[in-house]
Structures
1.
Amino acid sequence: MQKGSFSLKARVKSLMHALHGLGELIRREHNAWIHVVVALAVILLGIWVGLSAQQWVDVVLAMGLVLSAEAMNTGMEALADLVSPEKSEKVRFIKDLAAGGVLIAALAAAITGMIVFLPRLLQLFF
């Protein structure tokens, strides 16, 4: 990739491509739908229980990690399918690794959610 001088027009164009990719992810990927719905539920729950600023940072980072991992997984799967449209054990392995990355992110987010929300919910109900 050739490096030129800084261009605001090029940065805006790059941002538009990224936003298009995010839209495609949410529009096409069922797992991304699940992540977005859960993220919206977490945001509503966070508002309801009154999270602190630090807790919001933790929750937002966890949600961002999961959605980023899902985007990377989707991109890797699409690239693998493009490069090797036929069934391949190597491609299956690569796809499984990428999906495992999403699982790790989702588990870390769930644990973060429990650490943040359980004490608040226990205070409210007990």
Note: Residues 89-125 form the longest helix (37 residues).
2.
Amino acid sequence: MRTTDSNHSRPVASNVLDRRFEVTEPNTVWWRISRTSPPGGVAVLGAVEDLFSRRVVGWSSSEAMTSRLVVDAVAMALGRRRPGAESLAHSDRGKPVRE
């Protein structure tokens, strides 16, 4: 299953993380993970993982992959943790989600 589509003309952010997955402090690097349920399923999960602890710090579920799913997962993570101004939130360069 293909999850990333960077073949478009919209701006693409730089890959600041650049596969540097070793993190020395909590709440310095978060990344977004999106998974769908098994084939034929209707649930979509959006999750934010802290790369230091490798724990999910925010999540949201929906029947469709929408931008609200991602915003809600990040909002939960922000409410539960307090990242500093220099923290990095990394996301795939995936295909756009529905509004």
Note: Residues 35 and 45 are 5 Å apart (CA to CA).
